[in-house]
Design goal:
Strand content: 5-15%
Largest sheet: 5 strands, parallel
Distance between the termini: 64 Å
Radius of gyration: 20 Å
Helix content: 40-55%
Structural class: alpha/beta
Shape: globular
Number of helices: 12
Number of strands: 5
Order of helices and strands: HHEHEHEEHHEHHHHHH
């Protein structure tokens, strides 16, 4: 009898072409991912001694504050495991607000030996990884960092945060508590500015940390840059990217004048595309930037953010 694979974590709304909700913790896979998974499953039948001698595949955790490069990291890992040959195959990817031992193990069982890629922003249960090394192939954590003042500027511009210093400092405290937890476990710590200035090199570095080849790094970098940003009501369920994220990143990547209009370069009209630029909204005052710098001086000093 042909082996059947469980579908416990597939999002029912997504399968019907509907939008679920922003924090959906179900699985959302593209046709490309489904095909890659199917090819991997078929390849297992030709392996005399599959490498996966343990019950669980590896787990890749992506953590860090909003607007710091974590969505890029999440998609880079996800796409590397699709396009590059791996002993464990393509991953199941999720956004999980809170990670527990039973939940992560159930999702690993569902993955049938394949990896998990998990985007999270909070501290998990203390025993979340208790059996991952003994029953599985362990876990790796990747974090991203950015000047917290720039993180808040983006959040204010997008409208994700109220422009109130008390609210901002409270949110940053929560961000940093979770970030420092994950950083202590991290295999790789990626700088936001490097992700944007040298994405191919960062993908190659990420591949080395995972332990796979990076021959498709350039293609993956282009694919990440072209990922759709989601719907007006919330993030794209596969990429976990919000509409405002792509708008901000697009406006940063283009030549934009003070009026928010794109400028043409080298007289080449073919290279000029129309993009929506978020109107400038209230950003941090210099006094607020100073207080944020002082409140998290160790973090900013560590990464050289003056």
């Amino acid at each position: 009898m042909e082996e059947t694979f469980p579908k416990l974590f597939d999002c029912p709304d997504y399968l019907q072409g509907k939008y679920c909700h922003a924090l959906c913790n179900y699985r959302h896979q593209t046709e490309e991912e489904n095909q890659a998974i199917e090819r991997y499953r078929e390849s297992l039948t030709f392996r005399v001694h599959p490498k996966q001698s343990k019950r669980f595949g590896p787990v890749y955790i992506i953590a860090g504050p909003e607007r710091s490069g974590t969505s890029w990291l999440f998609n880079a890992v996800r796409l590397l495991l699709i396009h590059q040959e791996s002993s464990f195959g393509p991953a199941d990817s999720y956004r999980l607000n809170h990670i527990t031992k039973s939940d992560i193990e159930t999702r690993l069982i569902e993955a049938c030996g394949r990896p998990l890629v998990v985007r999270t922003m909070r501290i998990p249960d203390s025993d979340w990884a208790e059996t991952l090394d003994t029953s599985g192939h362990g876990y790796k954590v990747f974090v991203a960092h950015r000047d917290l003042r720039d993180v808040i500027d983006d959040c204010l511009t997008i409208g994700w945060m109220k422009h109130n210093l008390g609210v901002i400092l409270s949110r940053l405290k929560a961000y940093m508590t979770a970030y420092e937890y994950w950083r202590a476990l991290a295999t790789g710590d990626f700088r936001y500015e490097n992700i944007h200035s040298e994405p191919i090199e960062q993908i190659k570095h990420l591949a080395r940390l995972i332990g796979i080849e990076s021959s498709h790094a350039e293609h993956i970098a282009l694919e990440i840059n072209s990922l759709r940003p989601g719907q007006a009501v919330g993030p794209d369920q596969v990429t976990k990217m919000w509409p405002a994220q792509r708008v901000i990143e697009t406006s940063h990547a283009k030549d934009v004048d003070n009026g928010g209009n794109e400028t043409k370069t080298n007289g080449n009209d073919d290279n000029v595309t129309t993009v929506v630029v978020v109107p400038e909204q209230a950003k941090l005052l210099e006094s607020e930037r100073k207080k944020i710098r002082e409140a998290h001086s160790e973090y900013h000093d560590r990464y050289g953010y003056v």
